[in-house]
Amino acid sequence: MGSLANNIAAVAAVLAALVAGGSCGPPKFPPGPNITANYNGLWLPARATWYGQPNGAGPADNGGACGIKDVNLPPYSGMTACGNVPIFKDGKGCGSCYEIRCKAPDECSNNPVTVFITDMNYEPIAPYHFDLSGKAFGALAKPGLNDKLRHCGIIDLEFRRVRCKYVGGQKIVFHVEKGSNPNYLAVLVKFVAEDGDIVQMELKEKETPEWKPMKLSWGAIWRFDTPKALKGPFSIRLTSESGKKLVATDVIPANWIPNTVYKSNIQF
Ligand SMILES: *[C@@H]1O[C@H](CO)[C@@H](O)[C@H](O)[C@H]1NC(C)=O
After folding, report:
1. Which GO annotations describe the biological process of this protein (predicted)?
2. Is residue 15 part of a domain?
3. Residue 11 lies in a domain
4. Which residue's C-alpha comes closest to atom 1 of ligand 1?
5. What is the pLDDT of residues 104-141, one digit of tens each?
6. Whole-angstrom distance, CA of residue 182 vs CA of residue 162
7. Residue 10 included in any domain
């Protein structure tokens, strides 16, 4: 993690490289530096596109590159985006939150709206790229002009990382993935407040004292493989990007079954 000055210098270098870039074919941009949970409040430039249905959450309502399903429903309610490399971060960025706003074209309101990262798009169209749901893209417009703004297809944005807020006392939810068995447990984590993203998930069987580190499988799914059959109930320890830890004690019961949601009573 660089200092603020380093980050700014790195972004400036990327932007300078763009201006100096070749002129044949569509421009390709190297990714910007990773966006971290520093919440410095600075707005950075990005580009936005949109995908899916005009008022929908995108074609991947049922699981994009983060593996999070039903993103059209609350609490995400379709306010979702695919991030490019420094935003999606190989899945580590899943669930993180950004404020975005646009000044031009005239349809833009310049009012910030918040989106959740639930998918990836690594097309090199800008150092920072948000491929928004149709709903999120339209939400950048002045009242009544969302369709007109969507007709632009691609616009310049400003963005900044913000802490994720969930209303109504929403707690962190785990989903034991399809295909899990006593030798292979895969757990998706969602609805994580504050940083939104998880940098480490650990597992503890009730009857053993040690915490076992899980591996990031893909998206927001962490896995543990073992020749010795696992025995529930399981507790899960989460580490957020800022280094805070939380334990969901016995959140997955002894009689757990694959493809099932287990709600915790914890939240950052
Ligand atoms: C950016 O994030 C990715 C994914 O977590 C990681 O592999 C890479 O090392 C990070 N780059 C920097 C410069 O921290």
Report:
1. cell wall organization
2. no
3. no
4. 34
5. 999 999 999 999 999 999 989 999 999 999 999 999 99
6. 38
7. no
Query: How many structural domains are present in the chain?
Result: 2
219 CA to middle of ligand 1, Å?
15
The radius of gyration of the chain's CA atoms, rounded to the nearest angstrom, is 20
Q: Which domain holds residue 87?
A: 25-162
CB 34 near ligand 1, within 6 Å = yes
The Å distance, Cα 65 to ligand 1 centre, comes to 17
Say yes or no: CB of residue 204 within 6 Å of ligand 1: no
Q: Are residues 156 and 183 in the same domain?
A: no
Q: Residue 19: which pLDDT band, with cuts at 50, 70 and 90?
A: very low
Q: Is the pLDDT of residue 151 over 80?
A: yes
CA of 34 to the centre of ligand 1 (A): 6
Q: Looking at 127, 145, 162, which one is the last position of a domain? A: 162
Take atom 12 of ligand 1 and give the residue whose Cα is closest. 34
Q: How far is the CA of 245 from the centre of ligand 1 (A)?
A: 21
Which residue's CA is minimally distant from atom 10 of ligand 1?
A: 34
Residues 247, 264: Cα–Cα separation, whole Å = 9
156, 191: one domain: no
Nearest alpha carbon, ligand 1 atom 2: 89
Mean pLDDT of 25-38: 89
CA–CA gap between residue 247 and residue 141 (Å, rounded): 41
**Closest atom, ligand 1, to C-alpha of 1:** 14
CATH code where residue 189 lies: 2.60.40.760
In a domain, 152, yes or no: yes
Task: Name the H helices within 53-124.
Answer: 85-88
User: Is the Cβ atom of 200 under 6 angstroms away from ligand 1?
Assistant: no
